[in-house]
Give the backbone structure.
Amino acid sequence: MFFKNLTTAMNQAFFLFTCIISSTIAAESLNITQFSRWEDVESQYQSLLSFQETDINEGCNLRAHYWSRFLESHHRTLTGKVFIFFTPEFQNRKNLRWWYHVAPFVYLRNKEGNGVSEIVFDKAHRDRPEPLNQWVQAISSEKCREGKNLEDYDLNLILGGCVIYRANRFQFTPSDLNPAARKTSWQCRDLYKVKNLLPGFATNGPNRRWIYEELCVK
């Protein structure tokens, strides 16, 4: 499920104003794995736990972080993350409690080899990986605008609707999207929160090595 909204639109606006990053980041700067075959994308997607059977009231960031870390530790796949933010106008119109959602994504090269598509992994809500635009439509039921920089969120509040932003795989919550606090490596405290808070989490067996304590910053 998505995260619950903040108690007031004012708190939401202030928080989001401080945590938006540019979405116009090149694939190279995000360091995201680029696949050449859809079959490989599908195979890695199916290796993920869905967590559909668990009672997750506030878990999209936990799932996204676990999936990103799992894919890196088990398949050496590097993901990005895409955040959808829902403005107060959107929440009121859709009767939606949640003010954002997040999921990891990878790149799939086109047949010509001169471009990539963003493919989102959101196994708790979708039964297969999806191109970004299809995933956004499924989650929001409408087209979302793309956030460009810190200055555009006030305008987005006026326009309403929903807005998407991209980030690297290390960003755990919207507060991490503040450029001053942007993370460039796995943080042990974030991984421990995932381990302790994600219901139904498999801590034993082969899945245990996802955390790799020696490969995170304490």
In short: Helices lie at 9-17, 27-30, 38-46, 60-75, 88-94, 132-140, 153-159, 188-197. The beta strands are 3-4, 34-35, 80-86, 98-109, 116-120, 130-131, 145-146, 162-168.
